[in-house]
Input
Amino acid sequence: MISKQELKFIKSLHSKKHRTEAGLFLVEGEKSLAEVLQSSWEVKMVLATTEFLHHYIDSKNKSKTKIFEADTELLRKTGSLSSNDAGLAVVRIPDTDNYYEPANRLVLAVENIRDPGNLGTLLRIADWYGIKELLLSKESADIFNPKVIQSSMGSFLRVKVFYCDLKETFRKKKIPLFGTFTAGDNIYNASLPSRGYILLGNESQGISNELSALVDRRLSIPKFGKAESLNVAVAAAVVLDNFKRK
Amino acid sequence: MISKQELKFIKSLHSKKHRTEAGLFLVEGEKSLAEVLQSSWEVKMVLATTEFLHHYIDSKNKSKTKIFEADTELLRKTGSLSSNDAGLAVVRIPDTDNYYEPANRLVLAVENIRDPGNLGTLLRIADWYGIKELLLSKESADIFNPKVIQSSMGSFLRVKVFYCDLKETFRKKKIPLFGTFTAGDNIYNASLPSRGYILLGNESQGISNELSALVDRRLSIPKFGKAESLNVAVAAAVVLDNFKRK
Output
């Protein structure tokens, strides 16, 4: 049986400070958990229902991962979800020097995204559209926040996130920088290449003046009704769909 | 000063049961609040910061609405937001016979949407794309849930929501029914008219067999990467963008 100390440790991973200290984060819910178990990421511990363990844990996993059975009540108390009928895992944050090697394809960038749910949804969208790199300004939400991991539905395993100085990165760019603005060229008529940075602003302020100055082409999603704006993740999906459909 | 009893009453509106009994719901946050005050909806009470009241309340409002000053701490305790530096309003749920008069334009329909945040985002997207009606199956989330109102960013005022028996509605349809599926016609190449129902399934199960049988044309959003699916609101945005871009 899992000890009280171990449960306390798992709970501590809800906070960024403890995740950074331990170099570990939480993965919760059936889909994400199943995906991380099949990946090459190091899973230190699994706490899951009998049913989940029966379906997803094979002997290969058993040798390297601490495994505990838990009921849904213990999962709810220990994890961050209001209900969890599968399980949770403690996973090692991959070693990375966080150096972004400029890519010659479509790269998504967001300035100052704050909401973990939006960031997770953004990862899922990037993954759907085959985007491999997401650049975030340094003050953005933490990619290993349980809400990000949960709403990414496993896509955190496939989209590499870099926290970087976007200004520095774009100054040295060799591919064009597209920015989304309220007043820009209609994205339906624009010529959209297969390489370039696609930059979105944050939920309330849009793209800063500092970064706007570096944008090569301003794009807008046409509006047919009266909403003032689209959520940042939704805007990313529509923009990527327009880039990729060509 | 507002009484304890009135504060207790406001808090009771977090629950659907009490909203239905009282015929009232909560609107929170600066943007939504500003919009509802400018609308023709009946605002019974406003609880807001001095600054908000100074900016948004004119003498016209004062005559028909109970107005109280509140600090951010009282707003946080009374409302559903983790932080609120503007205010909240108690608003009358509009009288409606919930009868959907079949429209001869694009109408959005979702089967069994459960997550209030997704539903609010969906309203905002529908509003962006000029959709006037959203049909929801009866077991869907409540449109007057504070989280729906909050994430709709004021769009609940413009998109009319009908809870209806989707099967009955589609049986009597005079415009085509488009459904989104994993395996359907590529939406980029499909001929998409300016009238029809666009049906999306819920977050985890997609469209039921019962409703699938009534679909005239199955559409798919092309996938370029590895995410299993898109969130229902995100999928709605991409589909609407494809319908409207023609």
The radius of gyration of chain B is 20 Å. Residues 106-244 of chain B form a domain with the Alpha/beta knot fold (CATH 3.40.1280.10). Chain B touches chain A at residues 31, 117, 121, 124-131, 153-155, 158, 188, 221-231, 233-234, 237-238, 241-242, 244-245 (CB under 8 Å). Chain B has two domains: 4-92, 106-244.
